[in-house]
Write a structure and sequence with these properties.
Length: 195
């Protein structure tokens, strides 16, 4: 038997098998389609006033496929649930997606309003690093909780944990404590990984 023809037939058989699996399973969805389904579920929950369900749908959609529109709705859901620091953080994350000038102006107004409310109860923490642009996570490692330095976070009084990460550098973990009304600057110099 001709080895080239044998290879081609096997390749064609495998391709047809894969195609039939996808066609036989109309429920298959890639990350974009799946994220849109999850976002639609969040929107339906929001329309009913089920903000915990809405938040879950928006967070799941963002984890499936990150989009600025999902972050904006996450911010709104956190605000409806009274989690103002998380709402503020989501608005800040939204601005990192380089929105239009009109969207940025709207979000900047929301940020200012929330900051004014938070000053009385929370601590304001400035996180920076060298080199600048490292990812920083405070208290939880999740895509929604990932920011680039420099960034400002509003934290409840008490103990916290920050993890700084950047390609080519060793991660750095820092524990710290803040008090109500405090403003704290936290700077970390990251060490390059050995070559």
């Amino acid at each position: 038997m001709n080895p080239r023809k044998d290879f081609s037939m096997r390749y064609l058989s495998v391709a047809l098998l894969i195609a039939s699996l996808f066609c036989a399973n109309p429920g298959f969805a890639g990350p974009v389609e799946r994220s849109e389904e999850l976002f639609a579920a969040g929107q339906a929950s929001a329309a009913k006033g089920d903000w915990p369900g809405a938040l879950k749908g928006f967070l799941d959609a963002y984890q499936a496929y990150p989009r600025a529109a999902y972050v904006f709705r996450i911010a709104e859901a956190y605000e409806k649930l009274g989690e103002l620091p998380r709402a503020l953080e989501a608005y800040v994350l939204f601005n990192q997606y380089d929105p239009s000038p009109e969207e940025r102006a709207r979000v900047d107004q929301e940020v200012k309003r929330l900051e004014d409310q938070l000053k009385a109860t929370y601590a304001k923490v400035f996180l920076s690093s060298s080199p600048e642009g490292a990812f920083v996570f405070v208290d939880e490692l999740s895509p929604v909780n990932r920011f680039r330095t420099p960034v400002t976070r509003w934290l409840a009084p008490g103990k916290h944990n920050a993890v700084f990460q950047m390609d080519g550098f060793l991660p750095k973990e820092v524990n710290f404590t803040v008090s109500k009304g405090e403003t704290l600057g936290l700077y970390e110099g990251l060490k390059p990984k050995e070559q």
